[in-house]
């Protein structure tokens, strides 16, 4: 799986929503290799979209379509200074089944890591206990880009349950894994999608 992350500060939310609807209705059917998108507007006005593709080649083919280029130019006008940051994550994995269209709350975590491979191992090791202790977690994805950047998305059945359970006591083994993960991460930012827009490819 390949994940392309796009984000920027929105200045025209209404215009952006029109663009997003246009992409789903007009451009998505011909986006070969497209798997789905998780997108939403966060508290500080930052819009984030995580587009999943079967491969980097599929994402590249989509970007090279003339209609995609025209759509992109239109979408850029909805952002501050016309700037949209793009992060290509060639190494992307999912855990606990990945994301879910049933999610009512999505948290995106961005930062840098000294050991992306170990981060993935920790997710796999923690999964059995998380399934039991945190039933509101529906899954997640982790993508890495550049030298040490990462973008993680966690999908929840509801924000209220997520906030409530994040304060609960953790077993020693799980706490140890989370502490190790924290030591592997730096410059971490959290973005909350209170009303995520979830798009799955039409088959």
Brief summary:
With 203 residues, this protein is α+β, with helices and mostly antiparallel strands.
Features:
five-stranded antiparallel beta sheet, 2 domains, 203 residues, Alpha-Beta Plaits, globular, single chain, alpha+beta
Question: Would you mind describing this structure in some detail?
Answer:
With 203 residues, the protein is an alpha+beta fold. The protein has two domains: 2-90 and 196-200, Alpha-Beta Plaits (2-Layer Sandwich); 91-193, Alpha-Beta Plaits (2-Layer Sandwich), CATH 3.30.70.100. The protein is built from six helices and ten strands; from the N terminus they run βαββααβββαββααββ. The protein has helices spanning 13-27, 56-63, 66-76, 116-133, 159-165, 172-184, and strands at 2-9, 34-41, 46-53, 85-89, 91-95, 105-113, 137-145, 149-156, 185-193, 197-200. The strands form two sheets. Strands 4-1-3-2-10 form a five-stranded antiparallel β-sheet. The chain starts with a strand and ends with a strand.
């Amino acid at each position: 799986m390949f994940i392309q992350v796009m984000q920027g500060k929105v200045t025209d939310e209404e215009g952006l929503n029109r663009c997003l609807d246009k992409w789903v209705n007009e451009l998505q059917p011909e986006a070969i290799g497209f798997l789905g998108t998780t997108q939403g507007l966060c508290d500080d006005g930052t819009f984030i979209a995580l587009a999943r593709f079967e491969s980097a080649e599929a994402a590249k083919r989509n970007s090279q379509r003339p209609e995609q280029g025209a759509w992109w130019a239109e979408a850029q006008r909805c952002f501050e200074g016309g700037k949209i940051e793009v992060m290509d994550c060639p190494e992307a994995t999912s855990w606990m089944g990945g994301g879910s269209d049933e999610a009512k709350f999505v948290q995106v975590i961005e930062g840098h890591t000294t050991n992306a491979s170990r981060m993935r191992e920790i997710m796999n090791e923690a999964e059995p206990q998380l399934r039991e202790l945190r039933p509101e977690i529906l899954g997640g994805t982790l993508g890495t880009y550049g030298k040490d950047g990462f973008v993680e998305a966690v999908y929840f059945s509801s924000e209220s349950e997520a906030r409530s359970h994040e304060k609960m006591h953790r077993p020693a083994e799980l706490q140890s894994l989370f502490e190790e993960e924290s030591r592997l991460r730096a410059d971490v930012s959290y973005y909350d999608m209170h009303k995520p827009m979830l798009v799955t490819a039409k088959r």
